[in-house]
Design brief:
8-stranded mixed beta sheet, 8 strands, 2 domains, Hydrolase_4, AB_hydrolase_fold
């Protein structure tokens, strides 16, 4: 019996260590700095789009970098927000497309990515400061412009949380946002055939102890209703394996009865709507911006 109890104790300890290791790895995956090397990316130069390099600073002092694609006569500036571990070059397709449609466009790197400096990273928590700083930059350069945000994945969740409090953002396009951080982490565990319990509570604890914020602080589902009456275009692929389509359904319901347009891309995976029909996607977003904020400048 003593041997059995001893073996059970070792097994319990092993399970506890494994759960703790997975939880710590989860927190690091969400927040830990990782930069690709070498950091070679395309720029607007390759697309024959004139641009200026811009530098600005987040409220907590993190230096940020971006590209300004200018239409001096446009009454609208569109800020494009990339996803987790992405960078501004990921936004060249939609960014250049909206510039050709007549809008000024700001593409920028969230902290710890691309040409921006290092700082505390997260999944849509600290990044809200970066998006607010991008809005500040637009206000400085174009005080009278109307501001829209076009955003993807983590950037879309960040944009929902930021726009809920920042009414300078007058229209929002959110492609593939998550509804709550805890649920998207749980979806990741399920994707790898791991039980979300007890991993989620332990990962949340590791996240709070190491990175300073709780999963419960990142819940776009609770804040999306505050965007109303400003227009919102919500986009999601029905076959999204990273952020399940159910997140979009929850967000669309929580955003009602505000002016919400909800477009589903059938048979499409995470953030895949653009790649299914690049021209059609740009036209969809440009038409939404036109109806929401007015005509752009003549291309």
């Amino acid at each position: 019996m003593r041997k059995l109890l001893g073996a059970a104790g070792w097994l319990t300890a092993g399970v506890g260590i494994g759960v703790g290791a997975l939880a710590g790895f989860t927190a690091w995956t969400l927040n830990g700095p990782r930069r690709p090397w070498p950091n070679y990316t395309f720029t607007p130069f390759e697309l024959d789009v004139p641009f200026d390099d811009v530098a600005f600073t987040a409220p907590d002092g993190v230096p940020l970098a971006g590209w300004w694609l200018d239409r001096p006569d446009s009454p609208i500036v569109v800020i494009c927000a990339h996803g987790h571990r992405g960078n501004k070059s990921d936004m060249l397709g939609i960014g250049s497309g909206l510039w050709r449609a007549g809008h000024s466009v700001l593409l920028f790197d969230f902290r710890g990515n691309g040409d921006s400096g290092d700082g505390p990273q997260s999944l849509a928590h600290h990044e809200q400061r970066d998006l607010s700083a991008a809005v500040d930059l637009v206000r400085e350069r174009r005080p009278d412009a109307r501001i829209a945000v076009v955003s993807f994945s983590m950037g879309a969740s960040t944009a929902i949380l930021t726009a809920a409090d920042d009414h300078r953002i007058e229209a929002l396009v959110a492609d593939s946002p998550f509804a709550t951080l805890s649920d998207v982490v749980a979806a990741g565990y399920r994707r790898h055939r791991l039980p979300s319990e007890p991993l989620i509570p332990v990962a949340d604890l590791a996240n709070r102890l190491r990175y300073g914020y709780a999963f419960a602080e990142v819940r776009p589902l609770d804040r999306i209703g505050a965007i109303s009456p400003r227009p919102l275009l919500l986009l999601h692929g029905a076959d999204d394996r990273v952020i399940p389509y159910s997140h979009a359904l929850q967000l669309a319901e929580a955003a009602a009865p505000g002016p919400v347009e909800f477009v589903t891309f059938d048979g499409v995976d995470h953030c895949g709507g653009y790649f299914e029909d690049r021209g059609g996607y740009i036209d969809l977003v440009a038409d939404f911006l036109h109806r929401s904020l007015g005509a752009p400048a003549a291309p």
